Amino acid sequence: MLAPDHLAERLLPWFDAQGRTELPWRRPGTTAWGVLVSEVMSQQTQVARAAPVWEAWMERWPTPADLAEAPTSEVLRAWGRMGYPRRALRLQECARILAEEHGGVVPSDPVELEKLPGIGVYTAAAVAVFHYGRRHPVVDTNVRRVVARLGGEADAGTATTKADLAAAEALLPAEAETAARVSVALMELGALVCTARKAECGSCPVSDVCGFSGREVPAGPSRKRQRYQGTNRHVRGEIMAVLREADGPVGRDRIDAVWPDRRMVDEAVAQLVADGLVGTDEEGRFELPT
């Protein structure tokens, strides 16, 4: 495996030439808040879907204070159909804490970042590295795969471990700014070249020193797309869509119309209420929380 400085010499020119510069949060001038929002939006949503929502979001709420003061109903409407809308609630909780306790400044220390609602080890490291240029391992599925293959393994495990963090950190140069760029380049290599389904070794800038180079990705278990139609998540999404599009509170008859199975609708409504995503008025009608 390449020494960290040699890895940087190979990887960074490739990243400068091939990296996805069209991603809006990579534009010069993006704030730490903008990076944090992009990472939360991209957690369970493809970046192509998250990008236009992020742009509209940042134009409307460019600072934590702006989002903190926004009606929650408008925040959920702006989130749209990206899925897992509790992320929007957590972002607003983050915004309130940042505005009230941090003077609107997003911390640069991952330890402090992890204290914010919904911010885990990966997101905390991503903000510290991608915005502040700190030297920390930023390990997602793509990075774990690349690091594993550099060491001769076909793939990494299903969850990030301390060993994964240590292996990624061992590849980072000592100088923080260069290490930060290597972190994002490793992630990009996994997203574009060294993918789960295929290793494009002919396009890889480090293929000649990679322990997996030239090998076929094993078929492994079938990676069938998860069924969405008719699932609990689908019904929840349809209910949220009705409420986002409504001008006011919605009666139960309109909620029941989203899916023919009343039991599933009852279950979805109860979960949405418990999650704080749906409220009721004095007449028992349903609405987005204010």
Structure overview:
By secondary structure, the protein is mainly alpha-helical. Among the domains are: 31-130, Hypothetical protein, domain 2 (Endonuclease III, domain 1), CATH 1.10.340.30; 232-287. The chain has 14 helices and two strands; from the N terminus they run H-H-H-H-H-H-H-H-H-H-H-H-H-H-E-E. It has helices at 4-18, 32-42, 47-60, 64-68, 72-79, 86-101, 110-113, 121-130, 141-150, 162-169, 176-192, 232-245, 252-256, 262-274, and strands at 279-280, 286-287. Strand 1 (279-280) and strand 2 form a beta hairpin. Helix 2 (32-42) packs antiparallel against helix 3 (47-60), helix 2 runs antiparallel to helix 8 and helix 9 (141-150) packs across helix 11 (176-192). The model has no long low-confidence stretch (mean pLDDT 94).
In the CATH scheme, what's the topology name of the domain at 31-130? Endonuclease III, domain 1
Name the CATH superfamily classification of the domain at 31-130: Hypothetical protein, domain 2
Name the average pLDDT.
94
CATH architecture of the domain at 31-130: Orthogonal Bundle
Count of beta strands: 2
Q: What's the Cα radius of gyration? A: 21 Å
Order of helices and strands: HHHHHHHHHHHHHHEE
Strand content: under 5%
What is this entry, summarized?
This protein has 14 helices and two strands, in the order ααααααααααααααββ. It has helices at 4-18, 32-42, 47-60, 64-68, 72-79, 86-101, 110-113, 121-130, 141-150, 162-169, 176-192, 232-245, 252-256, 262-274; strands spanning 279-280, 286-287. It is globular.
